[in-house]
TrEMBL record:
Low complexity bias (residue ranges): 1-10
GO cellular component, one term: membrane
SUPFAM superfamilies for the chain: P-loop containing nucleoside triphosphate hydrolases
Molecular function GO labels: ATP binding; ATP hydrolysis activity
Protein name per its UniProtKB record: Glycine betaine/proline transport system ATP-binding protein
Record region (Disordered): 1-24
Keywords of the record: ATP-binding, CBS domain, Nucleotide-binding, Transport
PROSITE patterns per record: ABC_TRANSPORTER_1, ABC_TRANSPORTER_2
Species in which this protein is naturally found: Streptomyces qinglanensis
């Protein structure tokens, strides 16, 4: 396990407490491996293989480690995003969570229950009732109406026809397809078809929703609409979600926390703000290089101690206020902002401290270092 992964696993209990996860994690993964190839089970057992790159491992053993010694917890009610480039292992990982792909080694718990040790009946119960998957390929039945597609999982569960159609109609309305319940999939747009897939997953009332790059085939505007739909549903229901994507902007928009994968390993796990503000290595740093920092980082990372009368003047902002919002306030009022939480002053932010964050400089750097080299002034309002 990498140093980053070890630190991630060590901090899970503290993170769970901060997240309010008193009942334990929804999903707990420890030292999970998925190896493809001959005698795959020998790879996790032999420490000498852990230091090998993917190409070296294939050359020496004929095996590919799609998931390598991965550990993390998914807290109750959070949107946990796993992202990475093609071939990073993210889709293999999400399929391991319900054993659609059998892990090679490691432990996996679903609300405290051992998934690896589940028999066929318990595993079937997990997949039918407790965890629902939304795939990139909509997988709709073309000869069935929207309502009957949504009701399909309930039919598999054995629910009576009238009851399941009533439940399906409720889900159709929930995802914004009211009035389209009797249409066939071929009469819908791509975005509408994906909403049907989402409604079908919701219909069985799962404890956890698993999304495997569900929006990657959609046009940008439709994709954004579907992201908004996920955000809305999560806000209304608070359901635990695991979301797989290769798109950084999508990950930053949806995720409470993000696990960034490379070559089967988690190279960094943290909140969007933590990953953008403190990338773990050059790979992550390159990944987030073009992210507008002011739209992800909060004023908590930009504030400094108040000086003199600053403690009693300036607009109040919460510590989780985005730097972009604070910039607008500073530009509009022409003075600093006070960062206040529960009536307690934490610090202040002004044009200089906010500019340091936008420029990606160290918090203790000289604000003049953020100025253009030609000596011209750079107004915060223009950032």
């Amino acid at each position: 396990m990498s140093e980053t992964a070890e630190a991630t696993a060590a901090g899970e209990h503290e993170n769970a407490h901060e997240h309010g996860d008193q009942a334990g994690p929804a999903i707990s993964v420890r030292n999970l491996w998925k190896v493809f190839g001959p005698k795959a089970d020998r790879i996790p057992r032999d420490a000498s293989y852990a230091e090998l790159s993917q190409s070296e491992l294939r050359e020496r053993t004929g095996c590919t480690a799609a998931v390598r010694d991965v550990s993390f917890d998914v807290h109750q009610g959070e949107v946990f995003v796993v992202m990475g480039l093609s071939g990073s292992g993210k889709s293999t990982l999400v399929r391991c969570l319900t054993r659609l792909i059998e892990p090679t080694a490691g432990s996996l718990e679903f609300n405290g229950e051992d998934v690896i040790g589940m028999g066929a009946d318990a595993l079937r119960e997990l997949r039918r009732h407790r965890a629902s998957m939304v795939f990139q390929n909509f997988g709709l039945l073309p000869h069935r109406t929207v309502v009957d597609n949504v009701a399909y999982g309930l039919e598999i569960q054995g629910m009576a026809k009238a009851e399941r159609r009533e439940r399906a109609a409720e889900m159709v309305a929930k995802v914004g397809l009211d009035g389209l319940g009797e249409r066939r999939p071929g009469q819908l747009s791509g975005g509408q078809q994906q909403r049907v897939g989402l409604a079908r997953a919701l219909a069985v009332d799962p404890e956890v929703l698993l999304f495997d790059e569900p929006f990657s085939a959609l046009d940008p505007l439709i994709r954004r609409d579907m992201q908004e739909e996920v955000i809305r549903l999560h806000r209304e229901e608070g359901r635990t979600m695991v979301f797989i994507t290769h798109d950084l902007s999508e990950a930053l928009r949806l995720g409470d926390r993000i696990a960034l994968m490379r070559d089967g390993e988690v190279v960094q796990l943290g909140t969007p703000e933590e990953i953008v503000a403190n990338p773990a290595d050059d790979y992550v740093r390159d990944f987030v290089r073009d992210v507008p920092r002011e739209q992800v980082i909060s004023v908590r990372r930009a504030m400094r101690p108040a000086e003199g009368a600053e403690a009693k003047t300036g607009t109040e902002v919460a510590p989780d206020t985005l730097v972009s919002t604070a910039i607008e306030t500073v530009a509009r009022t022409g003075e600093h902002c006070r960062v206040v939480e529960d009536g307690r002053l934490l610090g202040v932010v002004d044009h200089a401290s906010l500019l340091i964050v936008v420029a990606g400089l160290d918090k203790d750097a000289d604000p003049e270092d953020a100025a253009p080299e030609d000596g011209t002034e750079r107004e915060v309002a223009a950032v």
